[in-house]
Amino acid sequence: MNLLFLAYSALFLSLVVSGCATQADLQAVQQEREVLRAQAADNKAAVESLRREIDQIRGEMEELRHRLERVARERGGVSPQLKLLEDRLSALERQIRMRSAAEEVPAVSGEPVLAKPEEPSVPAA
Q1: What integer best gives the mean pLDDT of the chain?
Q2: Cα–Cα distance between 4 and 33 in angstroms, integer?
Q3: What is residue 102's predicted lDDT score, i.e. its pLDDT?
Q4: What is the largest CA-CA distance in the chain?
Q5: Which of 38, 47, 84, 111 sits at 20 to 30 Å (Cα–Cα) from 55?
Q6: pLDDT for 54-113, tens place per residue?
């Protein structure tokens, strides 16, 4: 933009110095210069607007990053539902082991032993 402005200014000065410029030529150059100034002002405003928008987006990203880190720290431990499922699974595994062990107990009197292991209480979901 500055180069274009300088070029028009140099053209304007050369025309004035040479004395060949008519009043219409001078007005045309001035109009072009005003148009260029308006375009430069519009471009500057657009750039500033984009900078503000980028800063806003950066702020939102930083806020989201902090929220994500907080959630990750809060969920660092085992969730209650996962703990409940793990406890239920452990109880079922103990039941299976107890039943397997009871089936392997030999009969002493010749009659089969019907051992029914105690069933651990399984928390309801």
Answers
A1: 79
A2: 9
A3: 77
A4: 135
A5: 38
A6: 999 999 999 999 998 888 777 766 677 878 888 999 999 998 888 887 777 555 555 555
Q: At what angle do helices 2-18 and 23-74 cross, to 10 degrees?
A: 170
- In whole angstroms, how far apart are CA 65 and each of 34, 45, 60, 70? 46, 30, 9, 9
Confidence of residue 49 (pLDDT cuts 50, 70, 90): very high
The one-character DSSP state at 111 is S
Query: What is the DSSP secondary-structure string of 2-54?
Result: HHHHHHHHHHHHHHHHHT---HHHHHHHHHHHHHHHHHHHHHHHHHHHHHHHH
CB 115 within 8 A of CB 102: yes
